[in-house]
Amino acid sequence: KLAERVSADSAQEPSTTSKPVSEHSLLKTLNNTKAEMKERQAALIGLKALTFASPSYADWRTDFLNALREIVSNEGKTPLAFPALETLAQEKDEWALAKLEAILREPRGGVVSALDALRLLAYDDHGSHFDVLREIAPNQQKGQKIRLGAIRQLGADPSATPILATIVQDQAEDPLIRRQALAALRHADRTRYDSLANTLLNDDSENEQVRAQYITALKVDGASPAVENTLRKVQTESSSEIVRAASESYFKQSSS
Fold first, then answer.
1. Of residues 65, 113, 73, 110, the one with CA closest to residue 92
2. Interhelix angle for 241-255 vs 208-221, to 10°?
């Protein structure tokens, strides 16, 4: 069977004389909606391997991507939906990236979940999907997991700085969301990240976990002299035991 042949081909030594399964045969199986699902899955695995190994991939790439789009468009939530979309996303296929953005905006009826769509959009290293992430991040009607994932990716988007800073400063916001926004802000705009330091560190009405998260992050990159002065003050004067301990830990690591 095809699944066994694909597996055997992948395990063969270069010196083997047996004929490998061709991309044309694999495409035919992938396109055959009457074939067994495991055979079609094996065909997709074989074709993905050939995208790296076949010197003629450019000649059949269009047919391959069209087959994957057909699966996503017409077959619904089958076991092929996720790997088909994943392959398209890895190929930076604009149709697939738009499809994933649409699922994020309206998950009902999507062939993959919103969380899976978010993960697959991470393959878009050009950041064309940041618009939808900027919509999701501050939207408290969205679930916590999807917001955390969106905020995490926005660390690569400097234009998201105002959104991330607003989330960090919103004391009514979910503390876990605020901490993730703070971590993302460190990557998106280090200057803005540092500018929040004294406000966060000096305000004992602030969530202590958010403040401790900030101090812990400073262990990685180090604090400016001005922030270190604030940390020394917080270490002895803060009413939060957690914040004092985090400050003490920062200086112990700095001196070691």
1. 65
2. 10
Q: What is the pLDDT of residues 184-214, one digit of tens each?
A: 998 999 889 888 877 888 888 888 888 888 8
Q: DSSP secondary-structure letter at 112?
A: S
Q: Determine contact, residues 161/188, Cβ cutoff 8 Å.
A: yes
**CA-based nearest residue to 185, from 157, 213, 212, 208:** 157
Q: Which residues contact 142 (CB under 8 A, 6 or more apart)?
A: 136, 150
Which amino acid is residue 228, in one-letter code? E
- Tell me, yes or no, if the pTM score tops 0.85: no
What are φ and ψ of residue 108, in 5° steps?
-60, 130
Sign of CA dihedral 8, 11, 13, 19: positive
Chain position carrying tokens 């270490």: 235
Two tokens, residue 142 = 């969205």
Query: Within 2-80, where are the H helices?
Result: 2-11, 23-31, 37-53, 57-74
Q: How far is CA 154 from CA 2, 42, 129, 148, 172, in A?
A: 42, 35, 10, 10, 21
